[in-house]
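Hi Y.,

Following your request, here is the sequence exactly as I used it, all 59 residues.
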Amino acid sequence: MPFINLKLVGKLTREQKQIIAREFSDTLLKVVGKAKDKTQLVIEEYSAENWAKGDNLLG
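Below is the corresponding structure, written out as C-alpha cells. Let me know if you'd prefer a different format.
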C-alpha cells in the first residue's frame, strides 16, 4: 500500500489538495499498477517560521 507524505510551506485550498491527491494516485496507478483506493496521502502544511533551509528560517 503506497503512503505519500507531502510537506510544504504555505497553505493549499481544498481544491488544490484534491487535485494533488488525484494526480499522485493516478501516477501510482499508471507507473506501478497500485489501485487508487490503496494509495494514502498526508499533506502537512507549515508556516515559513517553522521551516529552515540550513541555518536560515524561511519566515
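The beta strands are 3-9, 40-46, 52-53, 56-57.

Thanks again,
Q.
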